[in-house]
Amino acid sequence: MIFLIGTRSSNAKNGSIQNEKCPKCKTENSLDFIINREYVHITLIPLFSYGKTVFIKCNHCKENFDFIDLNESIQQKLANEKLKSSALLYLGSFIILLSLLFLVKKNYDENIETSKLIKSPMKGDVYNLKFSNGYYSNMKIEKIIKDSIYTLHNDYNAYMFYDVDDLNKPENYSDKKVNYSKNDILTLYQKGEIIKISREN
Fold first, then answer.
1. What's the average model confidence in pLDDT over 5-30?
2. Is the pTM of this model over 0.90?
3. Is 95 helix (H, G, I), strand (E, B) or coil?
4. Is the pLDDT of residue 131 over 60?
5. CA atoms within 13 A on the CB side of 160
């Protein structure tokens, strides 16, 4: 999926400036304004608001004015215009925050579960591995005889940790068994080379 980041405007308020004259034609009560909120979005989902833009037009002479072209009195009136806050402009940030909290909680729960399972290995356990070269893979316990743990290693690697679960397919494992002691397995976990354990219930 492609994520597009950009900026957009959302109309916040329209109105007229009372008791002020147009800087060009000097007609009183002829200035209309549009105030837009500027916000950053990701794939059209608003992330956060970062400012506002103001457009002014005289409905008599039809001249457009920038905010800085107006006298101080008009600028002050526009600055004092109260805008309704829109929670929707922060929808994306809220979604991202919830996603991060979910991932942190999930990772915490997985770490707790892994710390329990590492102490009692069982046939069929799948260990997600992190190699020193930055790649990820997994191995599966094929059988356990006393202190010896016989594992089958996956023939494939993943670049990212979240892809390693997809490698766990029977046809991806080598027939060659690798033997570890239970202490060896615990050492791999303590060194951070075993990052997750999956066990079928």
1. 89
2. no
3. helix
4. yes
5. 3
Are 20 and 32 spatial neighbours (Cβ–Cβ below 8 Å)?
no
Dig out the tokens for 192 from the structure: 């951070």
User: pLDDT per residue over 137-180, tens digit each?
Assistant: 999 999 999 999 999 999 999 999 889 999 999 999 998 889 99
Strand partners, 152: 140, 177
End-to-end Cα separation, the chain, in angstroms: 33
Is residue 45 within 8 Å of residue 38, measured between CB atoms?
no
What is d(CA 104, CA 168) in angstroms, rounded to the nearest whole number? 23
Give the DSSP per-residue string, 122-180: -TT-EEEEE-TTS-EEEEEEEEEETTEEEEEEES--BSSGGGGGGG--GGGEEEEEEEE
Indicate the Cα dihedral angle 172, 149, 110, 133, nearest 10°.
-60
Strands annotated E in the chain: 5-17, 31-42, 45-58, 64-65, 126-130, 136-145, 148-154, 173-181, 194-198
